Amino acid sequence: MLETSAEGPFVTGKVRLIHAAGMHARPAVKLTKLAKRFQAQISVRASEAADWINAKSVAKVMALRAPRDATIEFKAHGEDAEAAVAALIDLVATDFPDAGA
Amino acid sequence: MTMRADVAGLSFRGRTASIGFARGPFIRLNSSENSARLAGTPDEEVLSLREAIQSAAEQIAELAAAVGGEAAQILEFQVALLEDEDFLDPIFASLGQGMAADKAWSSALDEQIADYNSAADEYLQARSSDLADLRDRVLRTLRGGDSQPQAVPRGAVICADDLPPSRFLEIDWSGGGGLALLRGSPTSHVAMLARARGIPMVVQLGALPEAVTALLDGESATLELDPGAEQITLFERRREAHRKSRATARAILRRPAATWRGERIRLLINVQHVDDLDHADAQYADGIGLMRTEFLLSGPGGMPDEETQYRAYDAVLRWADKKPVTIRTFDAGGDKPVAGFTPEGEANPFLGLRGLRLCLARPDLFKVQLRALARAAIRGNLKVMFPMVTVPAEFEAARGLFAQVVADLQAEDIGAMLPELGIMVEVPAAAMTIGDFKAAFLSIGSNDLAQYVLACDRSNGALGNLADPLHPAVLELIMRTAEHGRRSGLPVSLCGDMASDPACVPQLLYSGLRELSVNAPSLAQIKQTIDRLSHGGSGG
């Protein structure tokens, strides 16, 4: 979804976390690795928490402590924001598949 | 050195993290504690830390490339942290204020470790050893210690307080060997790696003396130090039996039900954490015959609140689906002291305030557990049993308290119900007057029952063969309890170590028991034992 804010237009999207163990080490690593492939500034939050955190920081993403079935929201602004949000949502929705698998 | 072939070595029991057998030299890994560095100028400290982080990242990446697969994925988390600017920036910022690089690094990591340790989620707690590994690896470089890990001979039984995954991966396991950890956890990354590699691993062994050789039996969670000839013979026999029976046992395991003399034998499993259900054989169990709950008391957060307990019970019920789950209320005291809960300074804790006695003396804490259980009861096929019951009045008091808790919850509009209530039969007085108890089911705790009937502390090695659970007096009480169950239509099971011991199983069936609760790793072997018995084998 395209919205606008003080920082300019940004893209948002949400997805349900189906990973059985919640947002733990391996999903967090995959998520941050993917986020870093994009130029856009990407934020993430779980279960409508007040704070958005940097989706490129594995320490912060782990600290979300998002359990199974939590709603994960992404917010991105920058040139490739739309592609970034789409890719991240796809990663979570497909339960963090192994690359190349 | 004198050979003391007939002198028995010391035996220790822990928790199984990975099954299998290892016999070899006993090697202690020393934790490298090099002295702290003196802070240079902020610029020097920034440079040193950058180099140390860079070199740690390279070492880990190299290791990950060499091991591949699941192990590499575990290491990726460490690499990702070393590349995380949000995580590193505050550390570098504190260097600008004159802090030494090693101090800044370890205090930042220690903070994260403490944070993970305080998580209610055991998975997150287990991740803290990955962070400790990362902390130590960078510190080794910063403090100029040799970053070469201690050499370990092949096939050794390795002893450490806890072991980080990267250290595990640096060890050459091609010649076998095993892991004996003083602390550690069956859900740690290193336990996952050990299971995947088939390396036997026992955790939570407590303090261990020095020794030259060791026998590690991951199946019975025992470590024997400087074993005598007889211990070695018995160990090799267990190892050989394990190897032979594993393949056939697993085939039998997949059959629908165990029967003996045309009667169905129910085989259930004993668990502690929901993670114990990850064992590949757990799915073949007829249910959970004993879920221990004491472990909840020793978590990092102290006494667990209602929600934490509810989640722990609910997770097991969800796993079991329609199968029965018997949860035992806190069985603390005796050899399971819990700070702030069990009494201190008892002259004889095994005959003191333990099990249900202690819970009834602390209704404030007991009620929290009963509330969590009453809420969980509506979620599945839950039964609850009380440990260490001596007289019917104790059972009635517990039932009364439970009923009151259920009424309170319902008044608060919270879904709850009173589950089926049973007792552990482990005090001889209860076994001998079993007809006086109005319990819905009975579960024989053979470890304590044998200990009390024989007046033998099971953990006292000096008593040797005297502590024999097959003593006629113990079997007599088992038989009476089974007979009472049969006549009054009450289910009777046995959940002590005897049930997991193939040598005891024939006697238990002859005593009239038709329900056994065993450790998940023993399930295949016990099912096979019953299968052999019912096909006319001696079962010996």
Descriptive overview:
The complex is a heterodimer of chains A (101) and B (540). By secondary structure, chain A is of the alpha+beta class. Chain A has one domain: HPr-like (Histidine-containing Protein, Chain: A, 2-Layer Sandwich), CATH 3.30.1340. Chain A is built from three helices and five strands, in the order ββαββαβα. Chain A has helices at residues 25-36, 58-63, 81-93; strands spanning 2-5, 8-16, 41-46, 53-54, 71-77. In chain A, strands 1-2-5-3-4 form a five-stranded antiparallel sheet, with helices on one face. In chain A, α1 (25-36) packs antiparallel against α3 (81-93). Chain A is globular, with a radius of gyration of 12 Å. Chain A starts with a strand and ends in an 8-residue tail after the last helix. The mean pLDDT of chain A is 87. In chain B, the strands form two sheets. In chain B, strands 9, 10, 11, 12, 13, 14, 15, 16 and 17 form a nine-stranded mixed sheet that branches. The radius of gyration of chain B is 26 Å and the shape is globular. Chain B has helices at 42-67, 69-82, 85-96, 101-117, 122-142, 165-170, 189-197, 229-253, 306-320, 356-361, 363-377, 392-411, 428-432, 446-454, 472-488, 505-510, 523-534, and strands at residues 10-13, 15-18, 21-28, 157-160, 178-181, 201-203, 213-217, 222-225, 258-260, 263-271, 288-291, 325-328, 382-386, 420-425, 441-444, 492-494, 515-519. Chain B has 540 residues and is an alpha/beta fold. The longest helix of chain B is centred in the N-terminal third of the chain and has 26 residues, at 42-67. Chain B has 17 helices and 17 strands. Chain B folds into three domains: 10-29 and 150-227, Glucose Oxidase, domain 1; 42-142, PtsI, HPr-binding domain (Enzyme I, Chain A, domain 2, Orthogonal Bundle), CATH 1.10.274; 263-534, Phosphoenolpyruvate-binding domains (TIM Barrel), CATH 3.20.20. In chain B, α1 (42-67) packs antiparallel against α2 (69-82), α4 (101-117) packs antiparallel against α5 (122-142) and α9 (306-320) runs parallel beside α11. Helix content of chain B is 44%, strand content 15%. Classes of the chains: A alpha+beta (101), B alpha/beta (540).
